[in-house]
Amino acid sequence: MNPTGRVIAKRWWLASFSALLCALVTGCPHNEYTVELKPKGGVIERALIFYRVNDGDTNNAPGFPSNQLAAITQIYPAGAVKPDGPRYVARGEFSGALPDDVGGVGSYTNFATSLGNAGIYTERFRGNDDLAAKTARQFRAADQLTDLCIGWTRAEFGRERGYRKLRQFLEEDFRRDLKNAAQYSQLVSVVALSDTNAPDEFTARFCQYLYERGYIKLSDAPEMYLIFKAGGDESTTRILRLVQRFAAEKMGFAATDPQPKSLAILSDPAAFEKSWERYLARTDLYRAKVKEWELKKKTDPKLTAPKPLEAPDDLVMELLGGFGSAGETDRLTVRLALERVPNQTNGKWHDGQVIWSADLDPNSPLPAFCYARWSKPDAAYQAAHFGAVILDGDELSQYCLWQNGLDGTQARDWETFLAGLQPGPELRKKIEASHFAAGAVPGTGGANQLTLGRKLLLDALGTNAMAGSASSK
What we know:
- The chain is of the alpha+beta class.
- The chain is built from 16 helices and 12 strands.
- The longest helix is centred in the middle third of the chain and has 29 residues, at 163-191.
- It is elongated, with a radius of gyration of 31 Å.
């Protein structure tokens, strides 16, 4: 496909999100990372295995970028990063914030209590989660692309009767529709991360959007099919034919009316390409590209000069949410070893581990993100005071979060209260009748924060048939 055909295809591509997703390409060489995590009470053991892959060859760890290796080495304790055959391995123990070794922000927290403990692991790897800034860039790109379209149409059709109508449509409706296209692109990219049917649905949704606003007609379905299937110059010709008809309609010409002569340029791909190239060569956008090239050429003499037809490409990619920007796509695997199935996670549980796999793609709509919450009861302590394990799973996690929020006096009062509990028929009554001198919450009319813990115990007793019986000790 010629350069102009590529630009047109990119714009029309907004109607097909399945095509957009297929365009994501993983490049080589790249880095492979495996993060192995093992909680140990208040700390978590972290092992990072990393190496370089070049065209499928994994036996080249010495080729790992030296600046990245140095950055990882600085994060871990002295001597913690060691070569292991074709790979490097870094080991350390961390509490709270996790090391920024792969890139991103992570944390591990363990909440210990006499009834058990709860752990929380979360980590974002690279990427950009500032969706508001990303949307602002997309809208700015939509405005710039719209301005380019207005400038070119004014140069070619500005003297035609009815051009004011076309100009008004571009200024208002087309500008807004291009921004909506950006939002559709963003939505399908995010939803497709968890729903493999999303691209097909969003393609249909956006085609419906185009139909409702008159860009396409029901009778255009065969033509649309051929556009996406044919490719090359044939697709370019068919796209221009639809654009020609649409422009004439917006200028107020019926299909049976004599068509403006200037619109004939849209029936000739070669003539259109030359016209579009001439216009782009005079734009500030292209001049800025040339200045950027001149600066870079001082350090890279082999760098080729930008072509006018390529000037809007970055704007199109920005409109689509950053797809097509440069950068390697590294691979990441995270393994979290746990004694039990976690209460909540977005990973997959397999053979005593929660496992995540992700592409660290700089064009991904959302950064790779891992999270898990788990808990483990102190079975002996709970059985001694309640006759059975009554708090487990997510309820135990809630309890651990609550108790770790108590201050020193409150925590001592609560532990004294727990230590006095014993299984038996009076257990529930004793919990219900409990009163705490400490822990009053300001501004609540004397309400006591410790009563929240009492409610958690009573609710747990209500769902556990064995709790309270002396024989269950």
